[in-house]
Each structure stands twice: as structure tokens, then as C-alpha cells.
Amino acid sequence: MDIEMKIRGLMVDPSTNAPIVILKDVASDTVLPIWVGLYEANAIALEVEKSSTPRPMTHDLLKNLIHGLNAEVQRVVVTELRDDTFYAVIWMEQNGEAVTLDARPSDAIALALRTDCPIYVSEDVLKIAKVIPNTADSASSEELRRWLENLNDEDMGRYKM
Fold it and tell me: What does DSSP assign to residue 54?
């Protein structure tokens, strides 16, 4: 089963300075941090903040290409967590046929924001992500998870990196 999620915010990991996208279950307090690259975080932040650029960025190009091919993004799903790497699938429809594309979650999320489609995470991913530590020290991983779950709007800021 897939769980619908919304972007709760973007932040920087205090220990590694790596960008993190925080997804939150729309029906509960469950949060899922996904560490992403700087460029992908920037692409997500631009769309969250509704900032425009003078020329289309890569994810804008993808959106335009999809629409130019008479396709529509239906949803994106973070489907798997394997060897500390998240995997995602972009679900589209073209001429009445379902089309799926393998994607990095950061790219799928950036595209979902641009196409106003829902973001889902597999229930299995949420279960695994809760038990697999992101660092060698599981105590610090659990502290980070608690800290993320207790963030409020002021802690998130305005999606600045």
C-alpha cells in the first residue's frame, strides 16, 4: 500500500551539511527524511517557493516534454529502499496507456511539484526506513528522527538552504 505524503520542508543535515527533503504523511505525524543532492534540493526549493527562472530548468524541461508528448504525470511513488538508497517511479498516462519511469526520488518529487501530482511512499519503505539507521551510530540516528518528528513551522524556516 502507498501512503500519500506532502513536502514538510527542506533543510540541511546539521552533521553533514547535506540537503534533506522532509516528507510527511498527510494522515499522521510520520515523517520521512530523504537526503538529496544540492542541485535537486535547489530545484525542489525553487518550486516550493514558486520562484521563476529566466529559462526552463531541467525539471521544467521534463514537464514541458511530458506535456508535449500528450502525457500526464499521475503520481510519483518512492517504491524501495535498498542499500541506503531510495528508488522512485513516475506514473504517467499517455493516450490511455500507463507508462512508468524509474527515477531518483529527488527528481520525481521535483517533477511532482511542477505537475501538481501526488507524492506517495510505499508502506514497506516507511517500515524499513524506521529500522535502518542513516549513520553508523544508531543512537544518533534515532535522535535525528525524534528531532525531525518534533520540528514545527518556525524550525523549518522558509525552505532556505
Answer: S
Prediction pTM value: 0.80
Task: Going residue by residue through the chain, which has 161 residues, state the pLDDT in tens, using 9 for 90 and above.
Answer: 999 999 998 998 888 888 999 999 999 888 999 999 999 999 999 999 999 899 999 999 999 999 999 999 999 999 999 998 999 999 999 999 999 999 999 999 999 999 999 999 999 999 988 644 334 444 455 666 666 666 665 555 443 33
Domain that includes residue 145, residue range = 2-151
- Integer Cα distance of 57 and 40 in angstroms: 11
Residue 159, phi then psi, degrees to nearest 5: 65, 25
Q: How many other CB atoms are found less than 10 A from the CB of residue 110? A: 31
110 and 59 in contact (C-beta within 8 Å)? yes
Count up the domains in the chain and report the number: 1
